[in-house]
Design a protein that fits this description.
The chain has 11 helices and 9 strands. The strands form 2 sheets. The protein has a 5-stranded parallel sheet with strand order 7-6-5-8-9, with helices on one face. The chain is an alpha/beta fold and 317 residues long. It is globular and about 50 Å long. 39% of the residues lie in helices and 14% in strands. The structure holds N-carbamoyl-L-aspartate (NCD).
Length: 317
């Protein structure tokens, strides 16, 4: 990728110095800007000049993570920056001594140029952004949002689908507690307004009202169903039932195996359907379909690296 091309795109960077808390921050111009930067980085497999040399990213993860933390860390390394990883064993940090969330953020802000935060409480990223002088990137705030995942999901759809057509998109599984689908539904409503959304979940796990309000505000065509018929979809986005969010594990047991994609299911799907999942999967997708070209979930992981490079470059430039 030419350095000149990247620098040209960065000239119209609307995100410099900004926190990324919710996808509601993104208008179509920002999405178009991020998608061009992502596409350039992807075209060169993420090889880049060391734009972030001398910059420090703190990865502060109060909840488990494999992909999101690893991909932010890999993205920062690829850009030549450094990382303070507080990604495992938060029990060994001063939080276990009773330090407040505010003090933790203000402390890490002294050492960092950006803080990537995952926290079990909805609204925590917003709270951190209000007290921090350096940008906060929300890597998942409880049952709230997961903007970087939703962006990589959206860009995967944009890369893999024919956008000339009105897309038929199914979001399947835990729509109540799944933060990735909260952010993604909002992005689809605003960026792909001609799509038709089918929300597939047991009634216990319906999409929350505040997201449904957003869909109505955008006049998105949607339906809510319980049983999943995979035929006619261009995109099938599966999710894990979020066991850790249930207070009553009997309820979890009732809904945990609601949907599963197997060889039989995909034989009913369109030839060019795209099967997605934010991962980790715990039974929603049978590994026997991984080699089917329609299975896009590991391509999503790869796209996540380029998207997070684009985000870090933007926020820190
Ligand atoms: C998701 C999350 O943490 O919300 N994982 C991820 O970041 N890729 C989905 C999940 O945990 O089910």
């Amino acid at each position: 990728m030419s350095k000149k091309q990247i620098e040209k795109i960065l000239k119209r960077n609307p995100l410099g110095g900004h926190s990324i808390v919710s996808v509601s921050q993104f208008d179509n111009e920002i999405i178009e800007y991020l998608y061009s930067l992502y596409t350039l980085l992807k075209g060169n497999n993420g090889e880049s000049k060391r734009y972030m040399k001398g910059k420090m990213m703190t990865a502060l993860f109060f909840e488990p993570s494999t992909r999101t933390s690893a991909s932010f860390i890999a993205a920062m390394n690829k850009l030549g920056g450094s990382v303070v990883p507080i990604t495992q064993g938060v029990e060994y940090s001063s939080i276990s001594k009773g330090e407040s969330f505010e003090d933790t953020i203000v402390t890490l802000e002294q050492l960092s140029d950006v803080i990537v935060l995952r926290h079990p409480e909805m609204g925590s990223a917003k709270k951190a952004a209000e007290i921090s002088m350096v940008p906060i990137i929300n890597a998942g705030d409880g049952v709230g949002e997961h903007p970087s995942q939703a962006l990589l999901d959206l860009f995967t759809i944009m890369d893999e689908c024919d956008l000339e057509k009105d897309l038929n998109i199914a979001l399947v599984g835990d729509l109540r507690f799944g933060r990735t689908v909260h952010s993604l539904a909002k992005l689809i409503a605003s960026v792909l307004p001609k799509s038709r959304l089918t929300l597939v979940s047991p009634s216990m796990l319906n999409m929350p009202d505040y997201i449904m309000d957003e869909l109505r505000r955008h006049s998105t065509r949607y339906s809510e169903v319980i049983s999943f018929n995979p035929e006619n979809f261009d995109v099938v986005y599966m999710t894990r039932v979020q066991k850790e969010r249930f207070t009553d594990l009997n309820e979890y047991e009732q809904v945990k195996d609601s949907y599963r994609i197997t060889k039989d299911t995909i034989s009913l799907m369109k030839d060019n359907a795209v099967i997605m999942h934010p991962l980790p999967r715990v039974g929603e997708i049978d590994p026997e379909i991984d080699s089917d070209p329609r299975a896009a979930y590991f391509r999503q992981v790869k796209n996540g690296l380029f998207l997070r490079m684009a985000l870090l470059l933007s926020v820190l430039s």
